[in-house]
Design a protein that fits this description.
heterodimer, A: alpha+beta, five-stranded antiparallel sheet, B: alpha/beta, five-stranded parallel sheet, globular, disordered C terminus
Chain lengths: 716, 137
């Protein structure tokens, strides 16, 4: 503040004067009360003088606040009015007193002192305002200090004027003592004390003026800023609710009023809890806001409730501040319903991004990777931080032509998207086929900001497609081959070509017949495998005694074995090998194993069939003494059209599907199929099925449930 | 444009029945001399002595298939320039193009007509047989 010492001095002087004023006022006014009563104007003046000091008292009140300073300001204005009235009153006084006491010599000095003080006080105020303006404008400090210096000088001159005023007062006293002795005591006292009162008031006023105006300047600035603050408070997007330390609402700003659908007045005096949904009411405690910012999770645990009963997600913050000698809590309230909804949507999107099986990569418009998801890592082998910032061309396999990429980007530039198959390379160097969908992401103005690539690995799909194609190609080949023989031999026979010898003719007939049979077997087997693999093959599950089935199978294949000069021996032993199965399908498996064994047995060989327990299963083993299965072929034994020695397969009449079919059937029945081969010594093919369990006979809802296979057994 | 007649055909086929039919067809009807082999190994044994004018190869054969058999035969001077023809039941889309890339002049699809097989072979010979084929005596 300006000239603080001067300020204090002024205060001290004013204080002294006021003390004197009170002494005089009480002493003198008391003594002249009765005589003086007739002068209403004087009484009015007296009131004004008292009024003059109220603001001064307020000024000195500790913790005085902005609003009270406004009142001070208003009374400073009154001081001006008072001074005017004083002059008028003095004029009237002059008329009363002129004849008795000649006070004219003092008038000029008194007026000059009063006017000078007033003028100086105004100057001090101006300088204070000027200094404040300079400070606010961030002006040169030398300008500010110049204003301060002048204010100090002015204050000193005010002191001088004040001293002059005191001297005049002293002179009046002396004059009154010496020259007014003959006057009526009461009148003299009245007039004298009135004069003194007026002078003291004048001087004090002038001094107080300086103090008051200075505060008034601040008050004005504060009023402006207060208005501005009000405007801000009412127009901010956040709701502001002030409550006392007990949580009792004092005010709502306009946003908060709108948010809750209630006026500030209608909720003032109620607890803040009344604005909360019952679920979160108990969570509210004004004491929580005593210390610093709240943790984020605390902010958002409240649900607000509007007047119409609707709810909204709320974010609540609070600051405890000291105002008017007490503490209040200023709450900032935000309706975060939309934000929460958006957050949820974002969260969902993020969850999808993280958990989808499609690889997702996002690049900026320059093609630098910005984000990839875990599926991308699973597919490519590249972790996100290994590829962020890089161009996706690091995934290129080199197996696509440059033209391919040029066309891809031409399409994206034209249509904003591209999709198709592309061969890329994983981090481990493995090339793989993926389906890729690239979309350009555009902003509002149509400018590309990002590219999003969604991809999934179709290498397995491609492999299975390839396998299917290969299967079809093989089937086609396998069917065409006997057909070629049939068609060829019949054509030659039909032509009656003289060149065909009788021996050749007989051979051609044999070829046509043999290949016809082979064709039929092939078609049957192909249908079987297709059915069993597509799970369309029907199984009629019954309790089957494998021991009996083995004997039957051996008998029915006996003739076939004899053609090869081979004997089938069934090992005696278990008679009660009960499993759950389909008799016909199991017979098909047994026939396949037996005929394979027979075909590969040496002449006069023996095929041995045995049934035995094995870890809760019944195992049937078919053993032959043929050449066995070369090690290199072990992995392909059960594959379709796989034959270790295809050269002689026609001779042996196999289709290459028998073991595939057998495996599919045993798999469906919950069993296992396998082989052991000791090349040149013996080869054993076996299958095993779970032993029949008593509870498998239980019927559930008309259907037997077979726990071991999951197959449903139709009711008998 | 043909100076030489087609005479000697080296035929490799793993299916004995088809081998028999082709042999009857080419020998009886076309009057060619045919060396019929059941495998690549067999063909490699006979090729030098036989001196083929033309190679007729099955494609799908165990162990060594037709294309590989052709490559192996090409390494022999006696079969290096002989026009080669595939005779095959494996004729899916794309196969034909692939076969031509392997250096055969034509492909005969199974089943074929044994009565016109020789005509077909002769026709192929007329078109490709003389090119770059030095007189083998």
């Amino acid at each position: 503040m300006i000239g603080n010492e001067r300020h204090n001095l002024a205060h001290a002087v004013a204080g002294l004067l006021i003390l004197a004023f009170f002494v005089w006022t009480f002493n003198l006014l008391f003594s002249i009360q009765s005589n003086w009563a007739e002068s209403n104007e004087v009484i009015a003046m007296d009131k004004d003088v008292h009024a003059l000091f109220d603001p001064w008292r307020n000024l000195n009140r500790p913790g005085n606040d902005v609003l009270e300073n406004y009142e001070v300001d208003a009374q400073v204005t009154m001081l001006g009015r008072y001074l005017q009235e004083y002059r008028q009153a003095r004029g009237r006084l002059d008329m009363h007193s002129h004849s008795q006491v000649d006070l004219g010599t003092f008038y000029a000095g008194m007026d000059a002192a009063a006017l000078e003080m007033e003028a100086l006080a105004r100057r001090v105020l101006e300088l204070a305002a000027q200094r404040e303006a300079l400070r606010l404008a961030g002006a040169d400090p030398t300008l500010i200090s110049a204003a301060e210096t002048e204010a100090a000088t002015t204050m000193a001159r005010m002191d001088q004027a004040f001293q002059s005023g005191l001297e005049i007062i002293a002179s009046i006293d002396r004059l009154l003592d010496q020259r007014l002795l003959n006057l009526d005591a009461a009148r003299r006292g009245g007039v004298g004390s009135l004069y003194l009162i007026v002078i003291v008031a004048l001087v004090s006023s002038a001094l107080s003026l300086a103090l008051l105006r200075r505060t008034a300047v601040q008050g004005e600035a504060l009023r402006e800023s207060s208005e501005r603050l009000n405007a801000i408070v009412n127009n901010v997007v956040d709701g502001i609710v002030t409550v006392d330390e007990q949580g009792i609402i004092e005010s709502l700003n306009r946003t908060a009023e709108k948010m809750f659908g209630r006026t500030s007045d209608s909720v003032a005096g109620h607890n803040f809890r009344s604005l909360l949904h019952s679920d979160s009411r108990a969570l509210y405690d004004p004491a929580d806001f005593d210390s610093g910012p709240q943790p984020a999770e605390n902010k958002s645990r409240f649900t607000g409730i509007r007047r119409d009963g609707s709810e909204f997600s709320m974010e609540l913050e609070g600051t405890r501040i000291h105002v008017h000698d007490r503490w209040i809590i200023v709450h900032i309230v935000r309706d975060v319903t939309e934000r929460k909804r958006a957050e949820k949507r974002l969260q969902l999107a993020a969850t999808v991004f993280e958990n989808t099986s499609e690889g997702i990569m996002i690049t900026d418009s320059a093609g630098r990777l910005q984000s990839t998801n875990p599926a991308f890592t699973a597919i490519t082998g590249f972790a996100a931080d290994e590829v962020i910032g890089q161009n996706p061309r690091i995934l290129q396999s080199g197996l696509q032509s440059p033209d391919f990429y040029i066309k891809m980007w031409e399409t994206i530039a034209e249509t904003g998207r591209w999709q198709g198959e592309i061969i890329n390379r994983r981090k481990n160097g493995e090339a793989y086929t993926q389906w890729l969908n690239i979309n350009a992401v555009k902003d509002g103005s149509g400018k590309v900001t990002h590219y999003v690539g969604v991809t999934f690995d179709i290498s397995e799909l491609k492999a299975s497609e390839r396998m299917k194609d290969e299967f079809i190609a093989t089937v086609s080949h396998e069917l065409r081959t006997p057909l070629t023989s049939i068609h060829g031999s019949l054509s030659l026979l039909d032509s009656g070509a003289a060149a065909v010898s009788p021996e050749d003719s007989a051979e051609l007939v044999r070829i046509a017949k043999g290949n016809s049979q082979r064709l039929v077997r092939l078609i049957d087997d192909i249908l079987s495998i297709a059915k069993v693999e597509s799970e369309k093959m029907k199984f009629h599950l019954r309790q089957v005694n494998l021991a009996e089935l083995v004997v039957n199978a051996a008998e029915s294949n006996d003739d076939y074995a004899k053609q090869f000069g081979v004997r089938i021996d069934v090992e005696p032993g278990t008679e009660d090998a009960r499993v759950l199965g389909d008799k016909d399908r199991l017979m098909q498996v047994l026939t396949n194993l037996l005929s394979n064994a027979v075909k590969h047995s040496p002449e006069n060989g023996v095929v041995n069939v045995a049934t035995a327990r094995k870890n809760g299963y019944w195992r049937v083993t078919v053993t032959d003494n043929g050449p066995g299965i070369p090690e290199s072929f072990h992995g392909e034994v059960f594959q379709k059209f796989a034959q270790a020695d295809a050269t002689d397969r026609r001779k042996r009449g196999g289709t290459g599907l028998g073991l595939s079919i057998s495996k599919a059937i045993i798999d469906r029945l919950g069993g296992h199929i396998g082989f052991d081969s000791d090349p040149g010594v013996r080869t054993s093919f076996y299958f095993e099925l779970p032993m029949m369990q008593p509870h498998w006979d239980m019927e559930v809802g008309g259907e037997r449930i077979v726990a071991s296979t999951g197959l449903q057994v139709p009711a008998e | 444009m043909r100076d030489r007649h087609l005479n000697r055909i080296l035929y490799v086929e793993d299916d004995a029945d088809i081998r028999k039919i082709v042999c009857i067809s080419l020998e009886m009807i076309g009057d060619y001399t045919v060396a019929a082999c059941g495998s690549c190994a067999e063909a490699l044994q006979v090729v030098d002595d036989f001196g083929p004018d033309l190679l007729l190869l099955d494609v799908m054969m165990p162990d060594v298939d037709g294309p590989l058999t052709l490559r192996k035969l090409r390494r022999r001077d006696t079969a290096a320039d002989a026009p080669a023809v595939f005779i095959t039941a494996k004729v899916q889309a794309g196969d034909m193009e692939h076969y031509r890339e392997l250096g055969v002049v034509d492909v005969i699809v199974k089943p074929f007509d044994p009565m016109t097989l020789s005509e077909r072979i002769e026709h192929i010979w007329q078109r490709y047989g003389g090119d770059g084929h030095v007189d083998a005596g």
